[in-house]
Write a structure and sequence with these properties.
Elements lengths: L1 H24 L8 H32 L1
């Protein structure tokens, strides 16, 4: 039973990230060539990670100083 709970938590996190990527970066890939589509998706993920780092750093800064 515990294993199922852990798997569900992991699935929930993954689906949340997918949802955010679709909302923030549009839900479709503009590139038609498969190699370029992969690069486009990779860049969208990198942009998401950069936004998360900035958001987390700002919240840590606010928490630390206020």
């Amino acid at each position: 039973m515990k294993r199922h709970v852990e798997e569900y938590k992991r699935r929930s996190i993954v689906e949340t990230v997918h949802s955010v990527l679709k909302r923030k970066n549009s839900s479709f890939v503009r590139s038609r060539i498969p190699e370029l589509a992969e690069k486009e998706i990779a860049l969208k993920i990198i942009a998401y990670n950069i936004r998360r780092i900035i958001t987390l750093n700002n919240s840590m800064f606010i928490f630390y100083y206020f």
